[in-house]
Write a structure and sequence with these properties.
Elements lengths: L1 H26 L6 H8 L18 H15 L4 H12 L14 H26 L5 H7 L6 H14 L1
Length: 163
């Protein structure tokens, strides 16, 4: 009986030791790669240089930002949390895609509105160009020519030739 109890205690200790090891392995995270850092950095712009994304900017400040991004990713932060952190620290101008609030809505509304307005304007212009033009001869017949003796004489000559 003591032998069975010893085996049972040994199995219980082994089982709980394996649970601890599994918990340690579950807590281990995959290392953050440069691709992971660049994926987040691509969504941010350099605060020093104009219109250069953080993943390609060669300045020392951007190198420090990329290191900070790596630290935040290793700490388990999401991309949205990192973007929000940098926007809070440096303003919305560092974000590649401005937030959809306030006056930033114009960025999303104006381009499609301009395309639609341009298409309508183009359609109206094409319709006007294709409209039949009035014949000059028919306009001259309907005009009042009684006061101009030369015009009356030309009209009479034209009637004789057609007639």
């Amino acid at each position: 009986m003591a032998k069975k109890a010893f085996v049972f205690v040994l199995l219980a200790v082994t089982f709980f030791a394996n649970l601890q090891t599994a918990a340690v392995f579950a807590q281990e995270k995959t290392p953050v790669t440069d691709d992971d850092v660049n994926e987040v950095a691509r969504q941010l712009y350099c605060p020093v240089c104009e219109n250069i994304s953080l993943d390609v900017c060669p300045t020392q400040a951007c190198e420090q930002w990329r290191s900070l991004i790596r630290e935040k990713l290793e700490a388990g932060w999401t991309t949205e949390q990192i973007n929000s952190y940098f926007a809070t620290q440096y303003g919305d101008r560092v974000l590649a895609e401005p937030p959809k609030k306030g006056i930033n809505w114009l960025v999303y509304i104006l381009p499609p509105a301009m395309i639609i307005a341009g298409a309508v304007l183009l359609a109206r212009t094409i319709t006007r160009l294709r409209a039949p033009k009035k014949n000059i001869a028919s306009v001259s017949r309907t005009a009042d020519t009684s006061g101009d003796k030369y015009l009356t004489r030309v009209e009479e000559e034209l009637k004789k030739r057609k007639g």
